[in-house]
Amino acid sequence: MNGAGVYVHLPFCVTRCAYCDFAIHLTTDAAVQARYYDAVLREWALRDPGPGPIVSIYFGGGTPSLAPPAAIARIIAAVTERVAVAVDAEVTLEANPGTVSDATLDGYRRAGVNRLSIGVQAAESRILQAMNRPHDFSQAVAAVAGARAAGIDNVNLDAMYGYPGQTLTDVERTVQALVELEPEHLSLYQLQLEKGTVLRREVSRGRAVMPDEDLTADMAERAAQIAEAAGLHRYEVSNFARPGRASRHNRLYWNQAPYVGLGMGAHSFDGRRRAWNVRSLSGYLARLEAGQLPELGGEDLSRDELMSEFVWLGLRQVDGIAAADFRRRFGVTLESRFGAVMESLSRAGLIAAECGRLFLSARGFEVMNQILPEFLPDSAEALS
Ligand code: SF4
After folding, report:
1. Residue range 359-375, pLDDT digits in tens
2. Is the pTM of this model over 0.90?
3. Per CATH, domain 303-383 is 1.10.10
4. From CA 365, how far away is CA 350, in angstroms rounded?
5. Which helix (H) or strand (E) holds 10?
6. Is-contact 274 298, C-beta < 8 A?
7. Which of 12, 19, 21, 24 to mutate to test the pocket of ligand 1 (most atoms within 8 A of CB)?
8. CA of 151 to the centre of ligand 1 (A)
């Protein structure tokens, strides 16, 4: 897929979920939020929009569904004023249950949003409360119905497994309840215990217990089976979609396409350089209001790093990577760079090559986290 993306980080939340380490700001103050949307527009005006075309605009958070539709419309209009946006571009807005109404959903669609990604996370109130999520499952059901009524025909639902206290039956019930809502896309994420979170503290103090590896693997397997049985096919380790509904936003990241990231904590990538913004609201506003880019840091990726990342991200997708894409991008063959790693993984039955594509076998997919580091520059060189 050719093209580029725009990511817009909208950081406001009502409460902080116990597992969350994202760059967020807790407020419902409309004046603070309005100042932030102005700053995002200033940042966009300062950024090089690149040649386009933009094939995905993604409002992530935070809780973007706290933003009024008029703010979303202004940002989309500003993007389309400076760079070509594909007529069929995917425009996604993340939403949390309980923060949308029929009127706001209608407003988002009129603003140009054509995909809604709803953070459901779990169907059981007990688990939602443990996560400190300020909603229940009935609000998720209402959000899906509202999206449909507003004419949004592309809906993703997010769920999480591997949470302390969650049983295999909880996960089965959640995923079953989600597929019954007939989404076009499902993201089923394993909980990551991030530093600095309330949950991590609870676990380290013994007040919460992580499910063991076997149980977590069973949860992943059952969740995938239920999704597949409902016609949602896995196309990446955590993502399932109906035919033609794989997320373009995700595909851009995994295929190393360029994107501009706007907002506090947002990352940008131009094909060689990755840069990231300040994470605090005060720092972000201060920079933009002084007419400066809010970048905190950046790194130029070496050719070896880009090659490793291309393979690493590509192999997370079920259909893997096209050898011709690699050659076109880097001017060398996959074999010339990773021949030794590929041979050893192929002998172990963990990767396969067919019809010009390299992909993980079913067994390789299960142990992906052990395999992918082999493609890092140091490991690949050690084996060649
Ligand atoms: S809603 Fe999302 S961004 Fe906000 S606190 Fe929860 S996980 Fe973090």
Report:
1. 999 899 888 989 999 99
2. yes
3. yes
4. 8
5. strand 4-10
6. yes
7. 24
8. 26
